[in-house]
Fold each of these.
Amino acid sequence: MAHTEQDTIALAELLAAWVKPGVILALDGDLGAGKTRFSQAFAKAIGVKGIVNSPTFTIIKEYEGECLPFYHMDVYRLSQDEADELGLDDYFFGDGVTIVEWASLIKELLPAERLELYIEHLGDEARRIQVTGIGEGYASWCRAINEMGAGR
């Protein structure tokens, strides 16, 4: 549970501390739930300088972080076929870390292993963030979050 925006930022910072090339964060949630805000906090935590905004109309934005590239995607306006033609594997299996907003729309194209986050708006700044690790590496992240008490 994220009671405030700062709680959402803290989760983004925690996950950013664990990233390595090829990490995939698959974000979903209602409009206005905080997917882009989470992405901004994550980008800042990995050392991306400047403004990170929603790639709704550009689909994919690439940024340089301090240690690795950050690929920020918004697939809300894409069909499965259109997304398939973008060569997403080059990003998913490349040298950077990728956040995909509206990831459930292209679930079949996502790597078999990923961290899924569903952000639900509960009013004011409160959010419920469900984190699911698909694959052992990401499942271990979820266990660590739960052990810290951040998964409630």
Amino acid sequence: MLRALLFLALLPAAAAWAAEEPAVAAVGAASGGSLIGQLLQLGLGLAVVVGLIFGLGYLMRRVGPLAPQGGQHIKLVSSLPLGPRDRLLLVDVGGTQMLLGTSPGRINTLHVFDQPVADLAAAAASNNDFARKLQAMLKRGADS
């Protein structure tokens, strides 16, 4: 398919080059190469760059995020927006859950809970469930 798109993109340029007068073609050849050669070089360079982008995207999906996730002791359990820039955050730090109020340039501790109010395992399971549903939807969209 990529070859067909490249062919269709270069077809008008090839037709224009073939219709050129010989004197104009001689000037083009003397100034550093033919138009077709330059367009092919440009197309090949573009194909290499696009191929690298897709290849790196595939590699990142296979490898996953580069930051280690296992050693984190601070986890965001829940977030509730209160306005366009203010929000409430329920954060778990080493097993202790805290309710934080955030606004631009400021974070306030509103309450530190003695007992956890939200189950981290259930939150992780719901996030995993969302990821599975999203993958299923993406696969279904790609198959159509």
